[in-house]
Specification:
about 260 residues, TIM Barrel, eight-stranded parallel beta barrel, binds phosphoenolpyruvate
Length: about 260
């Protein structure tokens, strides 16, 4: 049985001491749940100190990015090779990277490959803009992003990957038009279908597909209960220990119910 994954993307928030306080609160409130995985993605600066503070049975770490070369004169960058003993996961291709830093398909493909080469599981983010959705382009965009990002991986490597469907129009839009869980399910099924066509049934069913976009405690259950949804990627709500704890507890509950019915 696959474990539900709850990923906290802290983005460029929290100083080292603020991150440390949040970790302290999370330790107070989140118990060790062996049937789900809780992953924290702090800033590059705080990864190392946080790694010394977390109970690794309760929390795993992810970086929010990484550089695809292992070593060299790439001033300002941190490679996946440098993070290999620090993190289990890396968020790759987040829409913030695609939009603000103009990361294209080839760079994201190289990052995915570099993460895998260094024993780090990529959490590949894909998703369309509002415009692309309005123009009926969502499927094409998702298809291109997934196909190109995984194109250098073997079927065995693909089985371990995590793909987060994060429609850009749904990210941090707590007062905008909410996404509908049934639409999100269709998009997640489509991602699995792409993997199946490229790498076969086993790769498609073993790869984990998450939903991300303004998830909060009040709607987390709806997303986490969708067939084929292996977890959630949480941005803003992960900075609030009460909200994040509630989302983790909901994931644990949904996982247990699913296991009872298996
Ligand atoms: C994100 O940035 O990955 C994200 C899902 O953010 P939010 O939950 O704030 O929409």
């Amino acid at each position: 049985m696959k474990k539900k994954l709850v990923v906290a993307n802290w983005k460029m928030h929290l100083s080292t001491s603020e991150a440390s306080i949040l970790v302290h609160r999370l330790h107070e409130h989140i118990k060790t749940h062996r049937t789900i995985e809780v992953v924290l993605a702090p800033s590059m600066l705080t990864l190392q100190p946080i790694s010394l503070e977390i109970d690794s049975r309760r929390f795993k770490l992810a970086s929010q990015d990484g550089y695809p070369k292992d070593d060299g004169p790439y001033t300002g960058e941190v490679s996946f090779a440098m993070m290999r003993d620090l993190v289990d996961y890396s968020i790759i291709g987040h829409s913030a990277r695609r939009i603000y830093f103009e990361e294209g398909l080839e760079l994201i493909r190289d990052k995915v490959q570099a993460a895998v080469r260094n024993g780090i599981t990529p959490i590949l983010c894909v998703g369309e803009t509002k415009n692309e959705r309005a123009q009926g382009e969502a499927k094409r965009v998702i298809h291109d992003q997934v196909t190109s990002a995984v194109s250098n991986l073997t079927a065995e490597e693909i089985e371990k990957i995590v793909i987060a469907y994060e429609p850009i129009w749904a990210i941090s839009t707590f007062d905008g038009e909410p996404s509908k869980p049934e639409d999100m399910q269709r998009a997640m099924e489509y991602i699995r279908q792409i993997i199946k066509e490229l790498y076969g049934e086993a790769a498609a069913s073993n790869a984990r597909v998450l939903y991300g976009g303004s998830v909060e405690p009040h709607d987390a259950r709806a997303y986490l209960s969708l067939p084929g949804c292996d977890g959630v990627l949480v941005g803003a709500a992960s900075l609030n220990y009460r909200q994040f704890t509630d989302i983790v507890e909901i994931a644990y509950d949904v996982q247990n119910q699913t296991e009872d019915h298996a």
